Amino acid sequence: MKSVKPHIKAIASDLDGTLLPYHGQFNTADIETLTRLGQSGVVRIIATGRSLWSAQKVISPDFPIDYLVFSSGAGILNWKTQQLIENYCIPFEDVHRTTTLFKRHNLAFTLHHRSPDNHRFYYHQGSSPHPNLAAYLEHYHPNGQPLMEPVPHDAYSQLLAFMPNWEQFDTISRQVTNMKTIRATSPIDDASIWLECFHPQVSKAHGVNLICKHHQISEHDVAAIGNDYNDMDLLSTFRHSAVVANAPQELRNMFHSVRPVNEAGFTDFMSQFTS
């Protein structure tokens, strides 16, 4: 890979399905590209929906990045120092109102503790348990506990509702107030619909912008790549953006497309910025 053009000073990449194939391993070419980017002085950021605990299960301490924006922006970690530099929580009043809404619509959902312990959560199954919730509980065992009444009075990092269809997603998301709602596809089965709720300031783009502000990097000097609907704000915020070819057709119609994740799509994207 050739040296990176000066106007690209930071790169933000989603993790699952973009840099890391589902149920696969990182591509050697992408690891080499990240290493060379660092040698060129480019700030390397992974922006993921995973919790810190979950991300650390697949990213080694010596992985060639500088920052991790986790839980879709609810937290930011300096990867080299492992210092938590940002952490957003949802006030209890908003949590209580939203859990009441979800229960009224008989939704299965999870309620996550504040970062960095947001891999621990309460769960509510409803009268008709969602199959993806069962898989979620198995995947994150033993970190989930049944949600008892009343909801424990505390601030939380995130709510995640398991939606039966897109129509109900649209209906419920419009009724959620004082929170940022994000549409996502379950990385567990790559199909189930998730409605994620966060503090209003939370987004992948906001997290990346905070890092760039610290380094005095303009939005115009940032490249971003993703693969799913929860990357929309990231891809729409920065001038240089792309999706991998395994992204949904709707996103490929909206953004420039590069090779799929299992063919080093990240490296393909970065090759556009070499001299």
Q: How would you summarize this macromolecular structure in one to three sentences?
A:
It comes from Breznakibacter xylanolyticus. With 275 residues, the protein is of the alpha/beta class. 29% of the residues lie in helices and 24% in strands.
Q: First CA to last CA: what distance?
A: 10 Å
Number of domains: 2
If you compute it from the alpha carbons, what radius of gyration comes out, rounded to the nearest whole angstrom? 18 Å
Strand content: 15-25%
Largest beta-sheet characterization: 8 strands, mixed
Strand order of the largest sheet: 5-4-3-2-1-12-13-14
The coarse silhouette is globular
CATH topology of the largest domain: Rossmann fold
Which secondary-structure class do the elements indicate? alpha/beta
Order of helices and strands: EHEHEEEHEEHEEHEEHEHEHEH
DSSP summary: helix tally: 9
CATH architecture annotation of the largest domain: 3-Layer(aba) Sandwich
Uncertain stretches of 5 or more adjacent residues: none
Provide the residue-averaged pLDDT. Answer: 94
Number of strands: 14
3D structure, described in words:
This is HAD family phosphatase. GO terms for molecular function: magnesium ion binding; phosphatase activity. This protein has 275 residues and is α/β, with parallel strands linked by helices. The chain folds into 2 domains: 10-87 and 202-273, 3-Layer(aba) Sandwich (Rossmann fold); 92-198, Hypothetical Protein, Haloacid Dehalogenase-like Hydrolase, Chain: A, domain 2 (2-Layer Sandwich). Helices cover 29% and strands 24% of the residues. The chain has 9 helices and 14 strands. The chain has helices at 28-39, 52-58, 92-104, 131-139, 166-175, 204-214, 232-237, 249-254, 265-270; strands at residues 10-13, 43-47, 67-70, 75-78, 83-87, 108-112, 121-124, 144-146, 158-163, 180-185, 193-198, 222-226, 240-244, 256-258. The strands form 2 sheets. Strands 5-4-3-2-1-12-13-14 form an 8-stranded mixed beta sheet. The longest helix has 13 residues, at 92-104. It is globular, with a radius of gyration of 18 Å. The protein starts with 9 loop residues before the first strand and ends in a 5-residue tail after the last helix. 45% of the residues are buried.
